[in-house]
């Protein structure tokens, strides 16, 4: 019963069942994680300075990711002549960190706890926001994992130190990261146009080891050359703000900024990073799905994450 016309069990089409990330197993017990990748939802958006709604990002990205969930055979890419994310790559969904409304400190602490649990299990943490402030607890969780570099793909520098007493909003994460003794530098790519960070913030970022490139500057040198600017041998944590992309393809975000990246510009950058570096963590933030009735922004986010994970584990297997 329920298997008529299909060999080997249910067909399990993308629109059927519970929408975990890529329809991977849900792990409720965070002390029993056995996986290569652990996906964490961080539906926190109290850090925004303009349009809220990124609290619904994790749910929307999970649902969009079911489009790419066709079984265990992996995804064959004819351009690369490679199969990505086969059954050998174990991905689980941890669900969401608990968010306490209006309480930034407790909500961030709960996100940090989730990331620490993923790391303790030896899994690559992939945190889905939420606004960009959720990067702060993510980076806090790496305090005992050695030195690493941060690649930020974003329209905005997010290097505000403090504004009206706010130090943990979505304009602060890269400043908080740069202060960490174990963060050796930042590559801040896609930064453009008017920014939430004043000139002093840009000056401070460069003094603290930032390499800042706009979309146009990266187009001049190419995505591969941009990836090659990251210090060789550095471990890399990647934080992706969906507003790095042009709002013509990603309107579902709180602070859209025209002139952004197109899909392959970022994909080729991430593919090169995966080939050259050990990627130790990922977050993708600022998807606010209600501003995009087509759902395309969420699909872009899911597609980008799954492709990046494919590159990471393909590179790892090639090096073994």
Tell me the layout of helices and strands.
Layout: E1 37-42, H1 57-65, E2 75-77, E3 82-84, E4 91-96, H2 104-120, E5 124-129, H3 135-140, E6 148-153, H4 173-178, E7 183-189, H5 199-207, E8 210-213, H6 215-221, H7 223-228, E9 236-241, H8 263-276, E10 279-285, H9 296-319
Parallel strand pairs: 1-4, 1-5, 5-10, 6-7, 6-9, 7-8, 9-10
Antiparallel strand pairs: 2-3
Helix pairs in contact: 1-9, 8-9
What key attributes describe this structure?
single chain; 320 residues; alpha/beta; Arginase, Chain A; 9 helices; 10 strands
Strand content: 15-25%
Spatial strand sequence of the major β-sheet: 4-1-5-10-9-6-7-8
Q: Low-confidence runs (pLDDT<50, min 5 residues)?
A: none
CATH class, please? Answer: Alpha Beta
The major beta sheet can be summarized as: 8 strands, parallel
CATH topology: Arginase, Chain A
Q: In one word, what is the shape?
A: globular
Helix content: 25-40%
CATH architecture: 3-Layer(aba) Sandwich
How confident is the prediction overall: mean pLDDT?
A: 95
Number of domains: 1
Give the strand tally.
10
Architecture overview:
- The protein has one domain: Ureohydrolase domain (Arginase, Chain A, 3-Layer(aba) Sandwich), CATH 3.40.800.10.
- The protein has 9 helices and 10 strands.
- It has 320 residues and is an alpha/beta fold.
- Helices cover 31% and strands 17% of the residues.
- The strands form 2 sheets. An 8-stranded parallel beta sheet has the order 4-1-5-10-9-6-7-8, sandwiched between helices. Strands 2-3 form a two-stranded antiparallel ribbon.
- It is globular, with a radius of gyration of 19 Å.
- The model has no long low-confidence stretch (mean pLDDT 95).
- Helix 4 links the parallel strand 6 and strand 7.
- Helix 8 runs parallel beside helix 9.
- The longest helix is centred in the last third of the chain and has 24 residues.
């Amino acid at each position: 019963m329920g298997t008529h016309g299909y060999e080997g069990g249910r067909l399990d089409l993308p629109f059927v069942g519970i929408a975990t990330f890529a329809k991977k197993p849900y792990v409720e017990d965070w002390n029993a994680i056995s996986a290569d990748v652990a996906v964490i939802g961080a539906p926190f958006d109290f850090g925004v300075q303009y349009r809220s709604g990124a609290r619904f990002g994790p749910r929307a990205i999970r649902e969009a990711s079911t489009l790419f969930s066709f079984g265990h055979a992996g995804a064959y890419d004819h351009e690369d002549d490679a199969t990505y994310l086969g059954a050998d790559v174990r991905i689980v969904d941890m669900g969401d960190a608990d968010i306490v409304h209006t309480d930034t400190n407790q909500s961030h602490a709960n996100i940090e706890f989730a990331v620490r649990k993923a790391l303790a299990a030896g899994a690559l943490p992939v945190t889905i926001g939420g606004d960009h402030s959720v990067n702060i607890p993510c980076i806090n969780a790496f305090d005992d994992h050695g030195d690493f570099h941060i690649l930020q793909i974003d329209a905005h520098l997010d290097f505000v130190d403090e504004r009206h007493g706010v130090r943990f909003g979505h304009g602060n994460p890269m400043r908080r990261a740069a202060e960490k003794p174990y963060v050796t530098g930042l590559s801040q790519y896609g930064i453009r146009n008017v920014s939430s960070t004043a000139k002093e913030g840009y000056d401070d970022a460069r003094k603290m080891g930032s390499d800042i490139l706009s979309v146009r500057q990266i187009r001049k040198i190419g995505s591969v050359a941009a990836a090659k600017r990251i210090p060789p041998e550095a471990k890399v944590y990647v934080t992706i703000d969906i507003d790095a992309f042009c709002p013509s393809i990603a309107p579902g975000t709180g602070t859209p900024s025209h002139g952004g990246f197109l899909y392959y510009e970022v994909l080729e950058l991430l593919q090169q990073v995966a080939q050259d570096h050990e990627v130790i963590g990922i977050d993708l933030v600022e998807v606010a799905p209600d501003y995009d009735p087509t759902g395309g922004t969420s699909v872009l986010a899911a597609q980008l994450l799954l492709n990046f994970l494919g590159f990471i584990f393909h590179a790892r297997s090639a090096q073994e």
